[in-house]
Specification:
- The complex is a heterotetramer, with two copies of chain A (about 625 residues) and two copies of chain B (about 325 residues).
- Helix content of chain A is about 35%, strand content about 20%.
- Chain A has about 625 residues and is α/β, with parallel strands linked by helices.
- Chain A has a seven-stranded mixed β-sheet with strand order 9-8-10-11-13-12-18, with helices on both faces.
- In chain A, helix 7 runs antiparallel to helix 8, helix 9 crosses helix 10 and helix 9 runs parallel beside helix 14.
- In chain B, the strands form two sheets. Chain B has an eight-stranded mixed β-sheet, sandwiched between helices. In chain B, strands 8-9-10 form a three-stranded antiparallel β-sheet.
- In chain B, a hairpin with a 6-residue loop joins strand 9 and strand 10.
- Chain B is globular.
- The chains are: A alpha/beta (about 625), B alpha/beta (about 325).
- The complex binds thiamine diphosphate (TPP) (2 copies), iron/sulfur cluster (2 copies) and magnesium ion (2 copies).
Chain lengths: ~625, ~325, ~625, ~325
């Protein structure tokens, strides 16, 4: 059941052209930036693409050590590009440590681009190698471009008076030049960008341009081994419009803001820093959007309570965190459920338990999201499946929270947060406005009277004359909202709270299936596993397998429809990055005979692994 | 809840909700409730703009008894709720109702950060030096040796002083009152409400069931004049019968001492004049030992500083970006 | 599905003689004490018995109001007495409010004992009655003894110089005297007790004795209506030995202490006050047992962390709370799981969500106990089924926590905490000692190496020379315990943690079933529902129904045996005071076809209700 | 981990574990780690009796680098773990390692209660005025206006002072040091370790990545003598080149002021003599404005009070009851 123990073979992604490039170096080496530039070059060619940065730990570390290596992977090509690639076709390693950490991510026969000058005794020792990997046989079977990138770069920028240290900073541009050449790309777009960034006559712009061109011409000139085949980037036609790359964190931030704006609410994200949830707070802080603010609280409990206070006062309260912080919010979320106020809770899941692996993705907080509170305390749990989908899920969450007066939890994860994909910038003015109608003066107001359709109580904010009332976490009379110790009332309120949430499945009646309506295998996934699953499904489907895929967005309440859908398949497989949590929920709710495929390694599934498992199940059955 | 029948002038009773008050008979909370209603009536506070936010405890039930908006939240966290409320609608007049357990034990962190942030609200701390609602365990405000169900042979730990803690956390208004001394309490609450910033009013509240008479040594009528000093800004710190005693700072500045003016008339010059902007003296006033010294009541400390809600909303008002513009910032490409 | 809406009919408990007496009054009226005395009188007659105090809210309230009423119910008789009675045969009501609150708990035709002097205009109004219930027809069908108890008592104690106020305090003794007479009991035992309590010549002893005797003779003398039949208490023979009454809270305290003593560990219960968990802390504080202490922390998070610190240092760390506090401990419990230290967590469940109904029982924290943490964070969940069973469960929890180096959560509830039953005081010296063997110096010590049988790591405490090591919440190498970011290691650790807990089901292989091994209906319950379920099962069984009952003690891991056991029954019904939480767990784990019967009213099931439901299922099936 | 090969005399490096240190190059944490090792070596502390307990943060990784016992717990809660450890085994020498975020933000409540309870342990607060590990957000110790990812236009809230907060919570030992001033830091750590009770050492620690040079205004060599005052109990509060400056209390006792002895030689009499038992002066020392005044370093406050662990274990030692006796207490009956 461990995706990582499957052996590395071909990428298996053979139907359409795609390629995966991985950049690795010290955090100071500018690998994220270089990867970003290549991503952009692919994007403007109209290709599908997916990127993922990979940090090993939370803190920086001495240069040249393995635990200081950070990397960035980008995959682009034709057709469906939903995952950032199982393995890299090309690895750029700026030093021995980067090679050591990342070599197992490269396909056999893949291309390594190395800075030979860093493979000196000191660098090799720092990386923990016993001997120089370029000199023993350990890289056999790989294609290697080993150039003295350091010196070639320093040489190229010398004329601008940059010292060695500053010169070294341009190594990434030299490398990018070489890679652009590999993909038969010119340097002009990047040069424009550099000039925009630094100013045309800036010395750094000039030095970086010189390094870029040097790398490009180095490749152009015969020095590169002739058996390295230059890859030709195809031209593809995606939808018309203005595009950008978007990460899950940005997409969530945009979605939240859009949802609040369309509801005509001021919004405050109340949060406390934690990896990997913080970027959402950082983005919103930076945007300085009308009516939208962030509040950094003293801890996660305060953050959650403040967010509830925001909603109580008639704003939109949002709170975000990851595992340890979400655990701390448990009690306060229970209050929000009890007083029936809208609240958005974002959990950027990371690998647990406890502090776990803070930078790694996992989906192991689902059970906690659904059942992790004391008492019968139901809420809504949604999960976006891709960076761009975050934008929709955030809006949907707000819509539900307001319409049903309920907390909604969004389960994102460390992968979604940082992964990016191309995004057609939406026309915000085209999104429907849906202003909240707060309760106004009404002589017969009863704080817990409900809308018979949604079972929602009315949202009445302080400041509304004549509607003064009290709410709290003690059990309330089902109409007046006054404290009630009556056993029958408690039963009724328990039922009402459950029913209100159960009904919300109507909002998710349409369950999108990729593939035929019936067949041999239905794969059910949720969240960030969408990438690898959809690719595996498409590949098998193209080969004639009767396989379908649904990635469910609403994890609680579970739609009854799912049962009908699943009943038309011989086998149902639930794929997730935990020990089988959705699988267990589905067993209870709908389908006792589903199977489970899990992985808890902090890393995303590999497409090739899924492919094998799917085939196995289908073939066994037939 | 009828909007039209509101009388021209609101009486204290107009601030009472329709819920029966459920404290133990004789509990000091009743008196405080009355003082609060009277304060609101004195100010003709708008019910709809007044919000009582509380944690959990006997004291924290107060919001149910007010005809204003009210939010009975969870244990110790009322300041955090108040923050969310005020940054969303700074026009609301927010009263945080809390007990010594609620604010000094589980809620300690939010308590100190509220003062640090200086949210414009009032904190009424009902200090009965005990956990009332959970049947009388020692709280962080309980004196050493307090016998309680969890400390049957007497509590071990030194009590914490709410006022001192608040001062060190950056509080801009610190005051004290006594539950049943409603005539003194109402003006203090009134000043707290007027202060722009977080106002702490620590109210000594008698829990008749679990900690009866713990404040008797200074609240009892027979000793009140000798054991209480009522501070007035700009006035000398005099107390006792015929104001024949005064407070002065001792030689090494380590504490205050009592000057008996009857015996040492000349030392009147050493008697401090209350300057509620002086933090050093405020600290010493809150640190006075109840056995040998009077208890300082009234407004101990008061300074002005920017408030969080004001800061926050000012900043928010400067936010001018449109989402569509922000989305298009950075690298884009058109197809 | 609501047990409370079932109508009041006969007690249905017809096979053996039993009677239920309910005492109700203001908290100052001494009803708990009076009930306790009657309990004792029943106990020394060797009868089975069960008691339950019922407080409506957390705080006291003005005398004479309905929300100030507290009550105490005792049921005693022959045969199985596992529940404190669905309804009362006799209600003592010291004032109109007590009558108003409790009248619905009394059987039709039951006996009311009332203090007529309190039924004056003021008292009636305070209770919220429109008119005097003694004067309109509202008590029709009831037997009533309405005596001027106040004045009769004051009269009786006058000679000792007690004023009205102090005299009134003796009303409860007067009433007890009357009740003892009803059960053909003499007053001598209570007189002995009064003399012991106050001292023979003490004025209070004398006054109380006088009141007691006055009540007894009042009844003896013709004043009581002749159609009230005196109940004769049968003599029964239970096990030989020294007996006492025990509540769940005391029993847990004794069990924890015994477990620690037998493991030769110092124990600290680290807690923060909360209803209804506090009594456990109070008891332990009071006992002043060798090596056993309590530490009241500043909040529940600190309490849990301190308890982990205790275990880390080589003591036994215990932490106790209820819903809101347990929710706050979530994060810290995750750390205890990650570092694999023993820890006992006691959750005295109360009705939720949020603050809920603090004094009422519910079983709605099960899912949280099992799944309520971020990440894959398994632990062991046990539930005692009766006050005396708490003693065993506490010891078992300690045994498992130490043997497997794991946190164990005990799910008690508000009912178990306060309910009492007779208890044969065990011979402590007969309980096996099982001293912990801490890790001593070992050159090859690896902090996360495991015992191959239990998968437990070694418990090494600071102070042990040569064994210095570091632990923490980040993922650890599966042997060395050093921080590890390796994906495969994370998968392995996840599996190991899960497997360790799963194996613990071996500790619970024997599942006790009451009734035949196969049949029409197997009722599965857990926790405090044991009383009503066992009584209902016994009654139906006696009538020839093929019904069996198992009350499971180990809720996580779920024993595989349960599946086999259940497969021999036509129907399986899971009974619990929540929305079907164990039912859902069992569906996942073992038996997809079980049925669910739930109640979330904060009140225990009524035997009569269960009886009907069980019959219905069996009869429908046959 | 061999038990037999322990050298006769332990060197600082003998206290290093086998784990590679993983802070950013140039981080102030390295210097503090060295100071800690040196302090232990100076005392020849037993590795097996020494426990480092930390929360979460860059600073909180320190325990992994020590060859003693170590527990890297959860964010903000190290004091609570330390409490459990010390009441179970008071002989252990417990060092709590924490950051400004860890102890002053999420951990504020445990921080103040630790001082209140006076557990016998050392708290080393690595104050870099920023959240390091989570990539540089403003912390409660950050100055107003701090630009960070969560405060892109500058932070709004006033910083909290760890030392002042500790003093008001009942701290019995408060000291300060600077990361790289290892010669001064080691003796301060040493005194903290010797103090019976909770010892706070606030260490100004430079985070080279997210808050570089924030302490430069007083740690830079060129200004150190003018901007630092090293306190010695019983010695006059002199500083500056040739000790030509002194600290005195101002007229209304509201703050300390600098006396320039070069210009007013006579005023030497007003210069305070450091009495580390004087809480008023300790408070003023911790409240000095860094811009106009020197920063007080060394032991600011030190008094003796009973400790929680001692109290607790003394009480436990008095527990003499046998469980079988307790079970039989109260009403029993024999059949
Ligand atoms: C999270 C949580 N922990 C504990 C409790 C139990 N509890 C309720 S009130 C209270 C303390 C009350 O003391 P205080 O704040 O002094 O208020 P008082 O009753 O004395 O007015 C406690 C511990 C709770 N409700 N929630
Ligand atoms: C419950 C919880 N909330 C948040 C975090 C994320 N987090 C880790 S360290 C840290 C703050 C670190 O700041 P500080 O204590 O000042 O330590 P430094 O890194 O600066 O040394 C935060 C917010 C966490 N690990 N756990
Ligand atoms: S327990 Fe004490 S504080 Fe609570 S209501 Fe009763 S007297 Fe008041
Ligand atoms: S981020 Fe700052 S505090 Fe953390 S290791 Fe790097 S320099 Fe040190
Ligand atoms: Mg209190
Ligand atoms: Mg910091």
């Amino acid at each position: 059941m461990d995706g990582n123990s499957s052996e590395i073979r071909s990428n298996n992604i053979d139907d359409n052209w795609s390629t995966t490039v991985r950049f690795a170096g010290d955090s100071g080496d500018g690998m994220q930036l270089t990867g970003g530039r290549l991503t952009f070059e692919a994007a403007i060619s109209g290709m599908g693409l997916a990127t993922f940065p990979d940090y090993p730990a939370e803190i920086r570390a001495p240069a040249g050590t393995t635990f200081g290596v950070s990397s960035f992977q980008v995959r682009f090509g034709e057709g469906l590009i939903a995952s950032s690639g199982d393995h890299a076709d090309i690895l750029v390693a700026m030093n021995p440590a980067a090679l050591k950490v990342n070599i197992k991510e490269v396909l056999p026969g893949g291309l390594l681009i190395l800075d030979s000058s860093s493979f000196n005794e000191r660098g090799i020792k720092k990386a923990g190698y016993e001997e120089n990997p370029l000199e023993n046989n350990s890289l056999a079977g790989m294609q290697i471009i080993s150039a003295d990138i350091s010196n070639l770069t320093i040489e190229a920028v010398k004329e601008f008076g940059l010292g060695n240290k500053d010169g070294m900073r341009c190594r990434n541009m030299w490398t990018l030049g070489l890679i652009l050449w590999l993909f038969t790309k010119e340097t002009n777009e990047t040069i424009n960008w550099l000039q925009n960034k630094f100013g045309k006559d800036n010395i750094l712009a000039k030095a970086n341009m010189a390094a870029l061109n040097a790398g490009h011409s180095y490749a152009e000139n015969t020095e590169i081994s002739s058996d390295i085949i230059r890859k030709i980037v195809p031209k593809i036609k995606p939808a018309k419009g203005k595009w950008r790359a978007i990460t899950g964190a940005e997409s969530l931030a945009f979605g939240l803001a859009t949802g609040a704006i369309k509801s005509k609410l001021n919004m405050t994200l109340c949060s406390y820093p934690i990896t990997p949830a913080s970027p959402i707070m950082h983005y919103l802080a930076n945007y300085e959007l009308k009516g939208i603010g962030i509040y950094q609280a003293e801890d996660e409990i305060a953050a959650c309570c403040s967010a509830i206070g925001v909603s109580y006062a008639g704003g939109l309260g949002v709170t975000s965190s990851s595992g340890p912080g979400i655990s701390l919010k448990t009690e306060a979320i229970g209050l929000a459920i009890s007083v029936e106020l809208p609240l958005i809770i974002i959990n950027s899941q990371r690998a647990g338990p406890s502090t776990g692996l803070p930078t790694r993705a996992e989906q192991s907080d689902l059970m906690q999201a659904v059942h992790g509170r004391h008492g019968e305390a139901p809420l809504v749990v949604l999960a976006p499946k891709s960076p761009s989908h975050c934008f929709h899920i955030a809006q949907k969450a707000i819509h539900i929270a307001i319409k049903y007066m309920t907390p909604v939890m969004i389960l994102s994860d460390a992968y979604l947060t940082n992964a990016s994909e191309p995004w057609l910038i939406p026309d915000i003015s085209g999104i429907k406005e849906n202003p909240v109608s707060f309760g106004e003066y009404n002589e017969n107001y009863m704080p817990f009277e409900r809308n018979p359709n949604t079972l929602a109580r009315k949202w009445v904010k302080p400041g509304t004359k004549g509607m003064e009332h009290r709410i709290g976490g003690l059990e309330k009379d089902s109409i007046s909202g006054n404290i009630s110790y009556d056993p029958e009332n408690h039963q009724e309120m328990t039922n009402l709270r459950a029913e209100k949430i159960r009904n919300i499945q109507n909002e998710f009646e349409k369950i999108e299936i990729i593939g035929p309506d019936k067949g041999d295998l239905l794969v059910i996934g949720w969240g960030s596993t969408n990438g690898p699953i959809s690719e595996a499904q498409e590949l098998l489907s193209n080969k004639g397998y009767a396989i379908s895929h649904t990635q469910i967005s609403c994890l609680w309440p579970i739609s009854h429809n799912l049962k009908n859908i699943a009943s038309k398949f011989k086998e149902v497989l639930v794929v997730e990055m935990n020990d089988g949590q959705l699988f267990n929920l589905l067993k209870v709710e709908t389908m006792p005979n589903a199977k489970s495929l899990t992985q808890v390694s902090g890393k995303p599934f590999r497409v090739s692994y899924l492919l094998d498992k799917f085939k196995e199940i289908i073939e066994l059955r037939n | 809840m009828s909007i039209n029948t509101e009388p021209d002038k609101l009486k204290p009773t107009d601030y009472a909700s329709d819920q029966e008050v459920r404290w133990c008979p004789g509990c000091g909370d009743y008196a405080i409730l009355n003082a609060v209603k009277k304060t609101l009536a004195d100010k003709q506070a708008k019910k709809e703009n007044t919000v009582f936010v509380s944690g959990i405890g006997c004291s924290s039930r107060l919001p149910y008894y007010m005809a204003t908006y009210g939010f009975h939240t969870i244990h110790g966290r009322a300041p955090a709720f108040a923050t969310g409320i005020k940054i969303t609608n700074p026009k609301l007049d927010v009263w945080v109702i809390t007990g010594d357990g609620d604010s000094l034990s589980i809620g300690g962190n939010h308590f100190i950060h509220l003062f640090r942030k200086n949210l414009n609200c009032q904190v009424l701390l009902f200090n009965n030096e005990i956990y009332g609602l959970t049947k009388g365990q020692a709280s962080p405000a309980s004196r050493i040796g307090t016998i309680s169900p969890s400390t049957p042979s007497g509590s071990l730990e030194a009590p914490i002083s709410a006022c001192e803690l608040a001062l060190s956390s950056g509080a801009t208004f610190v005051a004290r009152g006594v539950d049943t001394a409603i005539k003194k309490l109402v003006p203090t609450l009134s000043k707290a409400q007027e202060h722009v910033g977080t106002s702490l009013v620590e109210i000594y509240q008698n829990c008749i069931v679990y900690n009866d008479d713990v404040f008797k040594s200074f609240t009892d009528k027979s000793v009140a004049s000798e054991k209480q000093i009522h501070l007035e800004h700009g006035q000398p710190m005099l107390f006792g019968e015929n104001n024949k005693k005064g407070l002065a700072i001792n030689k090494d500045y380590s504490s205050l001492e009592i000057i008996d003016l009857e015996q040492n008339e000349k030392e009147i010059s050493r008697v401090l004049v209350h300057d509620y902007k002086n933090k050093t003296i405020a600290n010493l006033l809150t640190q006075m030992d109840q056995k040998s010294m009077p208890v300082a009541l009234g407004v101990i400390y008061c300074v002005e500083k920017p408030t969080l809600d004001n800061y926050y909303t000012e900043k928010l008002n400067q936010h001018n970006n449109e989402i569509s513009n922000i989305m298009e910032k950075g690298q884009t490409w058109t197809i």
